[in-house]
Design brief:
Elements lengths: L2 H15 L4 E6 L6 H10 L13 H5 L10 E8 L12 E2 L8 H19 L5 E4 L7 H7 L4 E2 L5 E2 L7 E8 L18 H5 L5 E3 L2 E2 L5 H7 L15 E3 L3 H4 L19 H5 L2 H5 L3 H7 L9 H12 L1
Parallel strand pairs: 3-10
Antiparallel strand pairs: 1-2, 2-7, 4-7, 5-6, 8-9
Keywords: 4Fe-4S, Cobalamin, Cobalt, Cytoplasm, Iron, Iron-sulfur, Metal-binding, Oxidoreductase, Queuosine biosynthesis, tRNA processing
GO molecular function, one term: epoxyqueuosine reductase activity
Enzyme class: oxidoreductase
């Protein structure tokens, strides 16, 4: 076993020890296939008011522009599928936001992985990314064999579905590279048929400006009136296209205590949501990603759903 293979092996073992669902590695290079797709998507204004999606176009497609001398993109998945879910007949929030904000939790794990690499391998330069920089997470995860990008534009994995976060370490270390897996969506159109706002405009293409997650989180202005009655009681995010995906019948509950929901959350009725005060908001969502909408944003969403 050469040192490249040895390094690859110990990095993957450590990722597993840190609680990551899986780890795949691909060569840091220009994403040729994604470039025209991203350009077309942006030209059609499918990013809505997410202006940042149009920034750093080149960096988004080439990790070597983000990390000097980058050789490898280490992609990691972290499960967030909950053991218990909200009661039925209430306003809903995406399962990823049940517990504490994933950015901090994953950043901590990535830091530990970087420290492990420095200790076991030596001086390796690199950066950790968790959904907060111009990195095409799903494209890199697919390239490194962790799943395929499904018709709902989420990364899907045969054994575990899609309820997981994606993160990366981009490093200047040559490693063994994984190969992509095949697409297993077949003729299934469950996600397309179920989307309440018809945001999946064609297989593998989501018009972000119609997506309930965009409308309830990213959109800062008033919600467009033509979506009235179409948000399916989602107050923050949306899981419909994942909930109906046949591959998610293989989802297993996560083992990360920090992703467990605040006990009050699962019991909240529609009435509780409608009467939520800023104090309750701060208590229940103190460390949650729901804070992104702020109290005023959540109230706006709930008023729109009434």
């Amino acid at each position: 076993m050469n040192s490249q293979s040895t390094y690859t092996d110990i990095i993957k073992k450590e990722a597993q020890r840190l609680g990551f669902l899986s780890c795949g590695i691909s060569k840091a290079e220009f994403l040729e296939e994604e470039a025209p797709r991203l350009e077309k998507w942006l030209n059609k204004q499918m990013h809505g008011e997410m202006g940042y999606m149009a920034n750093h176009f080149d960096k988004r497609l080439d990790p070597r522009l983000l990390v000097d001398g980058a050789k490898s993109v280490i992609s990691l998945l972290l499960n967030y599928y909950p053991k218990e879910q909200q009661r039925s007949g209430t306003y809903k929030i995406s399962k990823y936001a049940y517990g504490q904000d994933y950015h901090h939790i994953i950043k901590g794990k990535l830091r530990q992985l970087q420290e492990f690499i420095a200790k076991e391998i030596g001086e390796v330069s690199g950066r950790a990314f968790v959904d907060s920089a111009p990195v095409l997470d799903k494209a890199w995860a697919a390239k490194s064999g962790l799943g395929w990008i499904g018709k709902n534009s989420n990364l899907l994995t045969q054994q575990v579905g899609s309820f997981y976060f994606i993160a990366e370490l981009i490093v200047d270390l040559e490693l063994d590279y994984d190969t992509p897996v095949t697409d297993h969506c077949g003729t299934c159109t469950a996600c397309i048929d179920a989307c309440p706002t018809s945001a999946i405009v064609e297989p593998y293409v989501v018009d972000g400006s119609k997506c309930i997650s965009y409308l309830t989180i990213e959109l800062k202005n008033e919600l467009p009136t033509h979506f009235k009655g179409k948000l399916d009681d989602w107050a923050f995010g949306c899981d419909v296209c994942q909930d109906v995906c046949p591959w998610n019948r293989f989802s297993k509950p996560h083992q990360e205590p920090l992703f467990n929901p605040h006990p009050n959350l699962l019991e909240m009725t529609k009435n509780d949501w409608e009467e939520i005060t800023e104090d309750v908001f701060k208590k229940v969502f103190r460390k949650s990603a729901v804070k992104r909408t702020k109290f005023s944003g959540l109230k706006r969403n709930i008023d729109f759903l009434k």
